[in-house]
Amino acid sequence: MRPTPSTAAASVSSPSLASAAPSASRWLPPFVLLAVLWGASFLFMRLGASQFGAVPTAGLRVILAALFLLPLMLMRGEWPALKKHWKPVLFSGIINSAIPFSLFAFAVVHMPTGMASVLNACAPLFGALVAWLWLGDRITGLRITGLLIGFTGVALLALHDKPASVGATGWSAYIAIAACLCASLSYGVAASFAKRYLVGVPPLATATGSMIGASLCLLIPTIALWPSQMPSWGSWLAVAALALLCTSVAYILYFQIIQTAGPSRAIAVTFLAPVFALVYGNWFLAEPITAWMLGCGAIIIGGTMLSTGLIGRKRA
After folding, report:
1. Which of 11, 184, 191, 275 is the most buried (most CB within 10 A)?
2. What is the rounded distance in angstroms from the CA atom of residue 166 to the CA atom of residue 123?
3. What is the value of pTM for the model shown?
4. Which residue ranges in the chain fall short of pLDDT 70?
């Protein structure tokens, strides 16, 4: 539900910022706040999509986020950069926002939000796999082992038993799992796309332009699929929080962490956010937290950390 690590890393123009040893007091507060916000995005998606529907929820999310980010980008003077790279930036919004946001908004209606957040944590798995297949990134035996471990965790989570959720009947829960995995794959493709085509584009220009691209992609489907009954104020507030807090503010925090602590620390937010999502789902939606779910989540996260080189990497 966010810029992928490679997307952010591709946009950072000063490597020294990422390589410096930062003080934890600088990056830890925004790190935790970002995990809180991204974890809450699954709850807000459920509250919004249950009345708006998946596509209108995603559409409103990116439209409101674009309206929030555009003035900030203009004040930062990054419009020329967006104008120069508008084609790849707008396209990145389709694969990094429009598609995954719609898929996750559909999924959380048919499965527990906590489980969706755990499956979202495997997005770096797909990122490593796509980078290997598309960009020819070097992949070691340890990273291959991480991929196998991570996807084994996904299979165990999906096949153990049908996820219990309001409205999940028959195969709908498994379709929801497939939607989560397709969304994560879309994030992985977006990461490699950014690494190839968006290197050097300022982060705020990338974030704003991608939201504009996603808005253009989802505008007509949002209008066509708009609910016949006006959603409640609670659903409107949930979508507003999803757009402004979990997307716009989260983008700003994420790039701040990239600049102060580096991409490897920033990617770790992906592993902390499910903790908050599980808690929110349990507190506000009475979703169960099972030992099997936690165990599979640990397997997925462990495999992801291996496949992305966050653990097991030789240090100079």
Report:
1. 191
2. 25
3. 0.86
4. 1-24, 160-170, 262-265, 310, 312-316
The verdict on residue 3 lying in a domain is no
CA dist list (Å): 107 to 20, 38, 46, 91: 39, 16, 9, 23
Give pLDDT tens digits for 39-75. Answer: 999 999 999 999 999 999 999 999 999 999 999 999 9
Residue 131 CA to residue 145 CA, distance in Å, equals 16
Dihedral sign from CA coordinates of 26, 301, 117, 133: positive
Domain that holds residue 270: 24-307
Question: Domain tally for the chain?
Answer: 1
Q: How far apart are CA 287 and CA 278, in angstroms?
A: 8
Q: Which amino acid is located at 98 in the chain? A: A
